[in-house]
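Good morning,

Both structures are done.
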Amino acid sequence: MAIVGAGVAGLTAAHRLREKGYDSITVYEREASVGGKVCSYSYQGNVYELGALWSSPRYKIIDRFASEVGAKRRGARLPDLLEDGVLQNYAGYMKSHFRPLELAKMFFHLGRSFVTYPSLRRANLGSLGFEASDSFERYSKAEGFGELASMAESFFAGCGYPHHDIVPAPYLMKMMHLFIDVLAVEVLALSRTRMKIFQNGWQDLWVKMARGFDVRHSSSITKIERFDEHGKPKTNVTVDGRVETYDRLILASPLDTCGLFVDLRDEERDLFSKIRTHRYKVTLVEAENVPHASMMDHVSTDKVGHINLIARQSLGTNVHTVYQRLDDQLSEERATALMHEDIRAMGGTLSKIITSKIWKYFPHVSTEDIRSGFYDKLERLQGKCGTFYVGSLMNMETVEHTAQFSIELIDRKF
């Protein structure tokens, strides 16, 4: 068994295969360390995240993994909301903008939506209803919780997701499913539902998960060829100048670029050409007088490149993580300049840029492609040529959803 990619999807698949009794598993990783978009950075004795940051109360798979490997976490506070210079927590914002009955109705309509479309909670995005495949903005308004979705948009923007009129509803409904519990922290002060941060970093969890597997770090795969041998699928992987042969292949690397080294069939090439991503910048800075908040004034498309979220991961320090959505035209230098401008406008002072990372983030397809059966077509390809596909595209760009799909696929196909 060959797995290409030692991020969340690939390592979860390897873990599940081992639980089912498979022991001949090789994991190839292009980078020198595992984790993929889970990326931790040490600075002055503390660990900060440049990729995934919080875990939600609904991260049941991650809870189990953390318990298995002894990865400890601590509680974390939900960022406040900054709008027109006014800083409020979610409880305060909801009280100032909605009457209790209005709020109750919106939460009811949101819950009803999950009951009406139970497929929104499944790991697989195939066979969705027409209405549930609409843009999240139109869908949330039609379902009666549009204002609740608008309130969450600045937080979702800070988490790296595009504007609500662009993103198909199935993706962000999965985020809303997580966000309900997070809001309960603010509204009901239920400590058991608090968000959490890994004490030694998210990446430490996946380093520990990788132990015991044959993980080939810094692997350079130049060609993957699939063929039949006596009626059975085989795969040749050319890596670091040598050819290794496997019975099955799990692609846990970005499907939109795997054609650079995989001998794609026409249907694969057609489907993968529909995948969209966008740029998402994460910067670790030293700064004074900046809020732990998402920016409600910066969610519109004309504010691209402005700060969407500032997170203070470690109390007692002046180190903050700044998150910005970028488009294809915005240069890294311009994004840095906008960050400086925004912090000054808040009355803050940025004294040092420690490090930064620009991610190719949130693989997804359009509303039209979902309605045209993209996920059903991709599902029918699972197992053909001895090849299987996992990753955040298959479910949603969160750690939990990525892991959920890997487990579900292994349970169905192996």
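Second structure follows.
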Amino acid sequence: MSSVDDAPPQTRLSAWAAEIRSICAGIAALAPEYTARSHAHLESIIALNTRMFYTGLFFSFLDWSYVFPWVLMGLSISSTWTTVSHHVIHGGYHNHNHNNNNNSNNNAKAENRYNRFTYGITLRRRVMDWMDYILPEAWFCEHNIYHHYKLNEPTDPDNIQQNLDVLRRLNAPLIVKYGIIALFALTWRLLYYSSNSYKYYQARKLKRELTGDDYKQLTLAGLVLNEWPAWISKSEYLALVLFPLVCYRALCFAPIYLAHAYFPTILTYSHLQNVVLNYIIADVLCNVHTFVIVIPNHAGTDMYLYRTSVPAKSDEWLLRQCISSTNYTLGNDIVDYLHGWLNYQIEHHLFPDLSAYEYQLIHNDVRATCQKYGIPYVCENVFARMWKAAKIMSGQDSMPYYEGSELERYVNEPCI
């Protein structure tokens, strides 16, 4: 029987991973206290989003040059995705219940509203929770399963160095490449994310093991050009994803059109045009805003790529989440709101099922643990990160591979 002395020495990686896990355990131990706070925090964000959206919509009859109507609506749409739906679908509020009483019916209703497996699933819930270009269950498949567990691997759907290989190799001036990136930023939720996330939903539904060309990006342009693979139903995509959205938006605008029809001198045709234009600009603003806060999260010459996979939740898996993610400027709720709470990306990838509120609580502990063991912990202004991501997308820079790197050697040395 082996003695304790025969056990392999603890490495920097194993020691770091043990302390990282203890941070999450500490949060779990205080769950009763943080549950109510997290739930109240979430509902305050939802209330703010609602007020912002309908304030913007109410004043959207004004000319677009007034700015605030489309800014309020655009930021609200962004936050509903990045802060609310993102963390709810990850399970950050799955067991949260702010009703600390014995009313089981009320408790069940509160639990169900933010249950990761029911949020946005039916058409009724999609209207109530998150009606956007992205199908909620498709987002779960693409983001929660493939992106989080295959971060910066060849099968990661959000590996931008791999996804934009054609643009990186394009023999064109940089100004042309930047123009293509800007066009992508203006349209990416509809032209890319909607259809590509749907592919992963279909694969899971059909129990299809993705291989080779299955990982190629699926775009709306590909649907128009009839380039989608046969196993993905175009008619089902249109009926399930886009048609309900078109109907929903038509119903939202119907009262405004009726008001114009009955009171044309009060709500003029010019006002009607302003309403539509302000909403379109808000949608474009949401595209640009989410592009800037989402795309740079795992891109840059200081982020690592991987040729191989490792077991989920293993020590190296935790390390990969940390060294292939970047935080942005951290601060108060206003700063965090404008970043969609994606400025805690390292903490989010380490513990994806925590709430947005809990990331604010643990980030100092995670940073300190990384500094203690010499593990990279990147935190930088979002615009600086966007510039670094643009250089990766345009082919000016390339991301390094972890396997065989100096960092791999360093973290696997004995911890002294």
